[in-house]
Amino acid sequence: MTDIALWQYVTFAGSAFAAGIVDAIVGGGGLLQLPVLLGSLDVGGGVATPLGVNKAVTAIGNTASIAQFWRRNPDSRVDPRILIGPGLIAVVSASVGALFVSNVPIQTLRPIIIVCLLAALVNTLRGTGKGKEQDRSEQSSRGRHAEIRLAAVSTVLGLYDGFVGPGTGTFLLLSHRRLLRRTLTDSLATTKIIQCGMNIGGAAVLLSQGVFVWHLILLMGACSMGGASIGARIALNGKDQLIKRVLVAAVLATVVKLIYDQISSW
């Protein structure tokens, strides 16, 4: 059993619960969860441990999100070619990115995380927009050209997800919608599965380099699933603007803390 204080368990569980809610509504739940883990989880294994725990917990939350999505959208389509092609590329790239980041000191990683957090926050708040759903004939494959471009984008996003990660789901969804010209529902069906695979691949690599705190992962995973369930209900009630404001405040506070920690380490 690793040396984690009770107050830390409460903090980690709370961050996972909040991240689950936010992720189900606007995406970007990792913007809340990852900084808490980086700032408070010190059980050895370097930066690989908090990053690995974050991805493992997010993967658990993804499964709950996928299950809820299928219940609410039974007619949504998953394109096997996208899962096997660009999807598999994204998973492999995420694993490679995770392998690289596990050897990066936290002092080097912190400024990168600050920039990525702010960029992901801006992208999340801009929103994907439900847009105008197209006819099935217009949703069909955009051809090999579009799939090649999507494969290239998946490589970059996979590396980013493995290296840092916050906001990947939003970036991935935007890429699929814009390149393949599919509806939001069909794009979500595919990208949710791909994102879950990316998190599993990244978590496996990172935790093999760090410390496998299974009890913390299970606790946070359960809280993440609970948060995702509540988040789905909030989304249906149209209260996402309140959550967006909370997300902005939390991320900005986190960025200030990370900047303070970085200055203190000099």
TrEMBL record:
Localization per record: Cell membrane
GO cellular component: plasma membrane
Superkingdom: Bacteria
Chain ranges passing through the membrane: 6-26, 82-102, 108-129, 150-174, 212-230, 242-260
InterPro entries (UniProt xref): TM_pro_TauE-like, TSUP
Membrane topology, from the record: Multi-pass membrane protein
Pfam families per the UniProt record, alphabetical: TauE (PF01925)
Keywords, ordered alphabetically: Cell membrane, Membrane, Transmembrane, Transmembrane helix, Transport
Family: Belongs to the 4-toluene sulfonate uptake permease (TSUP) (TC 2.A.102) family.
Protein's recorded name: Probable membrane transporter protein
Organism name: Nocardia bovistercoris
Classification of source organism: Bacteria, Bacillati, Actinomycetota, Actinomycetes, Mycobacteriales
